[in-house]
Amino acid sequence: MVGIVIVSHSWKIAEGVCDLAREMAQGHEGIIPAGGLEDGSTGTDTAKIADAITEADTGDGVVILADIGSAIMSAESAIEILEDEGRGINAVIADAPVVEGAVCAAVEAAGGGSVDSVLAAAEESREALKL
Amino acid sequence: MPSGIYECISLIAERIADNKDFLTELDREIGDSDHGINMSRGFTAVMEKLSPDESDIGAVLKKTGMTLLSKVGGASGPLYGTAYMEAGKLTVGKTDITTEDMKSILEAAIAGIQKRGKAVKGEKTMLDSLIPASESFNKKIAEGADMVTGLEAACESAREGVEYTKTIIATKGRASYLGERSIGHQDPGATSALITLEAIRDCMKG
Asked: What pTM was computed for the model?
């Protein structure tokens, strides 16, 4: 099953989005938060993201959703570090809103989707109108 | 090198700590008031990870980069982290560096920052001090200058680069939200890059 990593400056946001996505995608174990710094302060931590990617991967790849500012650069750095270590994990970043994207990605992943289809599901959530 | 790599990173960490409030104040004007705090937190963590007997320049630079990636928290983490990591790749096993090595280190650090930040010169970022610094260094050593003379020229150009950031509009990062209102303020990242270069220069003077 394709893993999902939620990167946020806030650990509460990352944990909360994961809780929501797990509820929408019953049975998906690989939805992993990577929020905040080790000391609990606000920010993004490349090492924490790399660990979350490793934990989320079962061999089918990982789709990452990230929030504002440094989150994307930190996620890109994490992917590069894993590549440099030769870990061979197919990890990609979705260009999508975190909450909506995570829910859509989780549902697609739980249904057996590939990295490409999970990524597409996350990114399609950008187009969803609310009103 | 008159001082070892440990002493060099220590001096950078010390200068960043000394300028913590100054960098944060610059960032308060056009950003999110955290550059000094974030950089200082990052380098405090770096100094906790390094030991004075480490002399492999590449290993120390990589450890510095990995720690900044993890502990800084803001955008300067992946940017400086990548810069140090890329410089570290070129210097594995070295305990001393030539002017040619320094040329490659500066160029690799800049390439790393550009790759990560997808920025070019003229966008009010750390590249506006680093790129002129690297160009001046290369010009000086091509004329036969030694390391310290090259770095003096690099710092002079970096300082001019910081001044130049006062005249331009930010198009990257949080400061870009301000548009024309970012004019008149010097870029915090360009400033911390200048502080870093000055520390390297002073370290090379011994």
From this structure: 0.94
> Which amino acid would we find at residue A101?
G
Domain boundaries, chain B: 5-205
Are B78 and A81 inside 8 Å of each other by CB? no
The pLDDT score that the predictor gives to residue B146 is 97
Task: Nearest by CB to A70, from B66, B71, B75: name it.
Answer: B75
Q: Which among B74, B79, B116 has CB closest to A43?
A: B74
Q: Which secondary structure element, helix H or strand E, spans residue A64, and what is its range?
A: strand A62-66
Residue A5 reports pLDDT greater than 80: yes
User: Angle formed by the axes of helices B5-18 and B20-30, to 10°?
Assistant: 60
Q: Is the pLDDT of residue B3 over 80?
A: no
Closest-CA distance, B92 to chain A, in angstroms, reads 15
Which among A43, A76, A77 is the nearest to B73, CB-wise?
A43
A contacts of B64 (beta carbons < 8 Å) = none
Could you read off the pLDDT of A26-74 as tens digits, one per residue? 889 999 999 999 999 999 999 999 999 999 999 999 999 999 989 999 9
pLDDT value of position B2: 58
Catalytic residue from among A6, A7, A8, A9: A9
pLDDT at A73: 97
Interface test with B, best of A10, A42, A70, A93 (most B CBs within 10 A): A70
Please, where are the H alpha helices in chain B? 5-18, 20-30, 35-49, 57-71, 76-89, 99-117, 127-142, 147-165, 188-205
Find the Cα–Cα–Cα–Cα dihedral A73, A74, A77, A81, rounded to 10°: -170
Residue A102 has pLDDT above 60, yes or no: yes
Top-level class of domain B5-205: mainly alpha
Domain A3-127's class?
alpha beta
Domain extents in chain A: 3-127
Residue partners of A86: CB distance under 8 A and separation at least 6: none
Q: Is the pLDDT of residue B193 over 90?
A: yes
Size of interface A-B (CB pairs under 8 A): 57
